[in-house]
Structures are given as C-alpha cells and as structure tokens.
Design goal:
Elements (H helix, E strand, L loop, with lengths): L8 H11 L3 E2 L4 H12 L3 H4 L10 H11 L14 E2 L1 H20 L4 E5 L7 H13 L3 E2 L7 E4 L4 E8 L2 E6 L2 E2 L6 H10 L6 E5 H9 L4 E5 L5 H7 L5 E4 L10 H14 L1
Parallel strand pairs: 3-4, 3-7, 3-9, 9-10, 10-11
Antiparallel strand pairs: 1-2, 5-6, 6-7, 7-8
Length: 265
C-alpha cells in the first residue's frame, strides 16, 4: 500500500520529466528506430507473442509510437535524443486505473501480475499486487516452479512468484525477458479458469493479450509491440514510460496510479 500522499497530475508530470521516466529519455533514437524496423520485419523478439491483422510498416510503427508514446514523429530524425510525452503517460495511467478498478469491482476478482523486467518497474507490479490483494482480489500463481524452454536455445528457466508477481528465473538470477512462453505456460495451466485481468509487460503481457485476456501493461519507447497490440484491440491499455530508471523513482507514479484506482472504485 502507498505510504505517502499521491502527487497531483502536475506534480507527477514534473516528476516524470525530472527522473526521465518520460520527457527526454535515456533510450536513444537509434535504438528506438532499430526496434521499430525489427517489429515491422516480424522479428518475434519484439512482437511479445502477439500476432497482428494489419501489415505494419516501419513508418506505420513510427507514426503509432509518436501518437501513443510521444516519440519524435519526424522520420528524418534518426539519431540522438528521443522523447516520451509525460501527458500520454499520465493519460494511460488514468485509463489503466479504470481497467483495474473495473476488475476489482467485479465478484471474486482474479488477477494475474507478471513482469519480464525484474529491475525498474518490478516495484510497480509488487505494489499493485499488494493493493489488489488488500482489496479482496485473488492473485493467481499457477505453474510455480515450472521449468520451460526460453529464448529458443533450449535453456530451461523457472517460473517463480515474488509477492504474487510472476517472474522468470535462471538459477539464482531473475531474468529480463521478452519471451511469451512463460505466460503461455501459465495460461495453459489455468485452462478455462483464467484471470479477469492481467497486469504485465513484455511477453507476459503480449501472450495474455493474444489469448484474449483483458490485459494492461507498461512499455518503453523501444518496445513497440504492446502499442501495436493496443492499436489492434488485443491490449487494453499500454502505459509509455522508461522501464528501467532507479526503482524508487516509480514511487510517485505508483502512488498516483493506486489513488486513481481508489477513486474509480
């Protein structure tokens, strides 16, 4: 649960810019554009387990990311600084809060929370898990300990839960992963008794959205897959943000999000 008063919208906007969660971000323009090209070419690593109905070209992906995340829309801007619009971040947080509140308002809500980013934004997922449990939700933890092949190399990794947040582990280390296979395995274990809502990122979110589960997620400016999924109505809400600043910098964002959920309940 939050321990400090939530920021106002204007205070959060300034905080996002000051900490580079949004505004002038650390992710380079070159990195963003490289990932947009990769997605347009159908590289599974950037598709997060999603399939798309439309033929998304590189220019299409760039235009969508400018609209949804606020990256610079000029295709001739190929190097240097790129941006995330903090207003878009906050608008998406408000939309995410509405979806979470709707799930929590239902009878016996069942929520699954997962992250492929066990630094940075994992702290948001942990706080949301505690909040949802405190509001009476059942936090689903299927397939705990299951070993799965990951990354296409035959390497076995284990699904674990930290305070009801699913992660992927390799021995004693938590793994940054885009892989949809962990969520696919989790949903298969649940069968027809799946969650009312998934809160996730990367392949955890993509696989859930592809399976038709109500999914909200977080994504960096160099991870266009969830934004394309949202444009095709497979992901309910995607929040644009830098997903790997110091974990403590997400405290204000988390407090704002939880306060918005509370106001929508």
């Amino acid at each position: 649960m939050q321990t400090a008063s939530p920021p106002t919208r204007s205070e959060l906007r300034q905080h996002l810019v000051d900490t580079k969660i949004a505004g002038n971000i650390a992710t380079s323009r070159e990195n963003n554009l490289d990932h947009y090209r990769s997605l347009a070419l159908g590289d599974p690593y950037y598709m997060f387990g999603l399939t798309f109905e439309s033929d998304w070209t590189y220019r299409d992906v760039l235009a969508l990311m400018a609209k949804s995340a606020g990256v610079i829309d000029d295709p001739e801007h190929r190097a240097g600084q790129d941006t995330i619009d903090p207003e878009r971040t906050i608008d998406a947080l408000d939309a995410m809060a509405g979806r979470i509140a709707a799930a929590l308002s239902g009878p016996d809500p069942r929520i699954l929370i997962a992250t492929g980013h066990p630094t940075g934004i994992m702290t948001i997922h942990l706080a949301l898990a505690r909040f949802a449990a405190g509001r009476g939700a059942t936090l689903l933890t299927p397939a705990e300990g299951l070993m799965i092949s990951s990354g296409g190399l035959g390497r076995k990794r284990r699904i674990l839960y930290f305070d009801n947040v699913a992660v992927l582990a390799d021995g004693g280390a938590l793994v940054h992963t885009h892989d949809p296979a962990p969520m696919q395995a989790v949903l298969a274990r649940l069968g027809g008794d799946g969650p009312d809502l998934v809160i996730a990122d990367h392949g955890w979110a993509g696989a859930a959205g592809e399976a038709g589960v109500e999914t909200v997620g977080f994504a960096d400016s160099n991870d266009p897959g969830l934004f394309v999924g949202e444009a095709e109505d497979k992901i309910a809400v995607t929040v644009p943000l830098d997903d790997n600043v110091f974990p403590r910098h997400y405290d204000a964002l988390t407090a704002y999000l939880i306060s918005r959920v509370e106001s929508d309940l």
